[in-house]
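FORM 7B - TANDEM STRUCTURE REPORT

SECTION 1: FIRST PROTEIN
SEQUENCE AND TOKENS:
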Amino acid sequence: MALTLYVDTDRWRAHQRAMLQQFPGIVPVCKGNGYGFGHERLSDEVSQFGSDVLAVGTTYEAARIKDFFSGDLLVLTPFRRGEEPVPLPDRAIRSVSSVDGVAALVGARVVVEVMSSMKRHGVVEEDLGRLRAAIDDVRLEGFAIHLPLDRTDGTDAVDEVIGWMDRLRAARLPLDTMFVSHLGPDEFARLQQQFPQTRFRARIGTRLWLGDHEATEYRGAVLDVTRVTKGDRFGYRQAKSPGDGWLVVVAGGTSHGVGLEAPKALHGMTSRAKGVARAGLATVNRNLSPFVWGGKQRWFAEPPHMQVSILFVPSDAPEPRVGDELTAHLRHTTTQFDRLVER
């Protein structure tokens, strides 16, 4: 009995092929937990569709993935002086976000990140003169710009990239390759058309692997079902049952990522009101689980355990049976499944 990730492999790969057509020269990203699929599996997929480079999050990931992928490895986390040295092959390319970082990587292959409206990290315009001198001592693979997902001020993503292209050109820096993130296919095509001498390469992870939501589904198997009546005590904390129904033990607990949730940006009054309501319910130990039964998400009976969750299913719902599977709305980037089944 397991928490299972079901994958419609043909549909999943069809989405990958569509992305390859929309973004020629795509740089697939495999970082974190491999978007729920794992590093080895995604490395194999990238090898199958023939990409020459794979982007990873950290040097530690690059050290692991080098055994699964034979092409170039682009490390997205910028180099910093004093970081722990991690042995990597020459096919590893380091991102750098400062002139000091470039100066410390003599002879290395580097991609220079410029400061975008994300304001996370990157070389600023005032440093371009010093950067021009520093790049003579490295093997420059190109420049990169990491753009925000939302543009609430109405600005245009393409205009932001063009602005940096103009600054780099004015500083007499080479514009052979520009790595970009978070652009749509039309925006990507506009840039390539406007700068035909520059090769634009889109670094894409989430949209490539998780862009077709119908291609994957998590399900947790029912391990035990116990009938309860209102007021019955149960669980580690001996809480009372809120009504008549069943306590359902389902595969999937904290070790799988169940019950873990990243903070979300709330937009609009409706989503904010829902957030307030969820917070209020949590204070009285009412937490909605990601598991669906009878067409509804069911409440946790108590906080999830390490490998299982206990749900309360009321008596007006169909009775679950041992061996049934409950669909689970889980975030791929925080979930560790027990098994993967391809359909």
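SECTION 2: SECOND PROTEIN
SEQUENCE AND TOKENS:
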Amino acid sequence: MAIKITGSGCYIPTETVTNLDFARHQFLNEDGTPFPYSNEVVAAKFLEITGIQERRYASNDLLTSDIATIAAQRAIDDAGIDPETLDYIIFAHNFGNVKKGAIQSDILPSLATRVKYDLKIKNPKCVAYDILFGCPGWVEGVIQAYAFIKAGMAKKCLVIGAETLSRVVDIHDRDSMIYSDGAGATIIEATDAPGGILAHESATFAHDEAYYLYFGNSFNKDHDPDVRYIKMYGRKIYEFALSNVPKAMAACLEKSGVDISQVKKVLIHQANEKMDEAIIHRFFKLYKQSPPEGVMPMSINKLGNSSVATVPTLYDLLVKGQIENQELHPGDVVIFASVGAGMNINAIIYQM
């Protein structure tokens, strides 16, 4: 028995926001003082560091659970399954449903329950729940689905990663340019086909790193201090990821028994292009190798960082032939890897 992804789908929001669209923002330092460089200089430096040219925002009428439902229906259709046969709906997000302009998150009922309702699934034994695991949430959801199926507790699971980060960013913080909205979903099920999930690895680093990503006040000191926004210590996250993600990937690969030469693609959380490139080089350096050309498909340049949605969206675009000069074939070995708030890290070795 192999446990595989049998269908995938994503929703890429329709509103495109380029770096130039931030020209009207007043960027401030953490202490509220004006940032000393023009927005044009900020945008140029931002592109150089992150590789992000533009990102997508959800239209005002759509919530996180709405775009998740669209991606989920596409995954269900792609897999050709009856949604009534799903045993679990596992929904990874971080902020729940946040309406445009609102200051309050709505997670009652759970977003997974809302997706089940929107999909019109009647089966009460289809269990729906949310997980909060930072950006690695979708990867962790896949690991949980694998465990349920491996234990005989399930046969089919729907795993979703969706977020609308554009609604929880401080417009006076330059880091707000990184974030975007999106949704990706996959059907995970037991099949008679070869391959599937070969190994997995997860870790939470909280002793010193728990608050590298957190909810904090606006850099604009005139804003309501009770309204919070996503904040991060970018340099600390970069150093943490560069040190720990390659090790997790290597540990996972060792568990799988797969040789590094067999790895065809690494689908890593689309957080920062330069950081991802550094992680990949550090990973292959552990094997005294350089990364093969094209081993790391990227979507961040056009889609930005949509947190839990980046990896499933990247996978769906890749298998649907929508990433230029990139493709996957049966038997190819893929590494899924992610890092994010918590601080959490995970990886999966997967054979197509």
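SECTION 3: OBSERVATIONS ON SECOND PROTEIN
Residues 279 and 319 are 23 Å apart (CA to CA).
The mean pLDDT is 94.

SECTION 4: SIGNATURE
Preparer initials: ____
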